[in-house]
Amino acid sequence: xxxxxxxxxxxxxxxxxxxxxxxxxxxxxxxxxxxxxxxxxxxxxxxxxxxxxxxxxxxxxxxxxxxxxxxxxxxxxxxxxxxxxxxxxxxxxxxxxxxxxxxxxxxxxxxxxxxxxxxxxxxxxxxxxxxxxxxxxxxxxxxxxxxxxxxxxxxxxxxxxxxxxxxxxxxxxxxxxxxxxxxxxxxxxxxxxxxxxxxxxxxxxxxxxxxxxxxxxxxxxxxxxxxxxxxxxxxxxxxxxxxxxxxxxxxxxxxxxxxxxxxxxxxxxx
Length: 270
Ligand SMILES: NC(=O)c1ccc[n+]([C@@H]2O[C@H](COP(=O)([O-])OP(=O)(O)OC[C@H]3O[C@@H](n4cnc5c(N)ncnc54)[C@H](OP(=O)(O)O)[C@@H]3O)[C@@H](O)[C@H]2O)c1
Prior knowledge:
The chain has 270 residues and is an alpha/beta fold. Helix content is 34%, strand content 24%.
């Protein structure tokens, strides 16, 4: 803490989310910016963080010192950066909010290991609305049962590099949990050509890319003669930054362990 404020370190400071988070910290009386990191060689390294912050505060490339001077880190970068970031967070005893998507099983295993030493909150989507959509999806899947086909569609801007989106996969995992099945065993990704009829009990994914859409998700439950659709549309990228900052303020000082946005919102375990 610094003057009663939570010290936040930002990873991916030159990126879209990093910029939104730094702007959010400047306007949040609970938080103070401890520093910011970019990939070594990135043109933003060495740049001052702007008039709202001390002139000495420049973007660096080594997460080690930043983790030591931060109560909590916020990471919106790339999966390749995760191992070094988690090592730095564990060594510096900083909690960490991970918003980076495209994480695979080996990244999840790294996060589990780090969570033995520090508080870690990983969320493929830090918005309040999507946190609730995940919960509703799990409840609906449980209530409706396997006769209802579940399809998850998402739309994102043309720059997005991973598909399906982390949020779509999290929605699929929520639906699978609701049904008591393993998502990997039932997911249909990227149908093309003569695929045959839909397999009962499978969960399908479709990814659209184009324009500047920050992220739309639709979960469809298709029954015989009726259909339920629940969804969420992002109007501004700021919602992710607001959610990440709320999560960071909540996570700072928590004991080691893995946490989720549900915990931040106080949603009871299902
Ligand atoms: N959880 C959520 O709610 C949520 C919401 C939006 C986005 N996301 C995810 O957050 C991530 C970032 O999104 P974005 O839209 O901000 O992307 P972006 O604009 O490309 O920003 C990512 C930034 O991280 C930098 N970076 C890459 N490797 C790094 C490293 N090793 N150390 C430090 N910085 C590194 C990138 O640098 P280069 O440009 O040089 O590679 C870039 O400046 C993506 O995985 C995205 O899917 C999550």
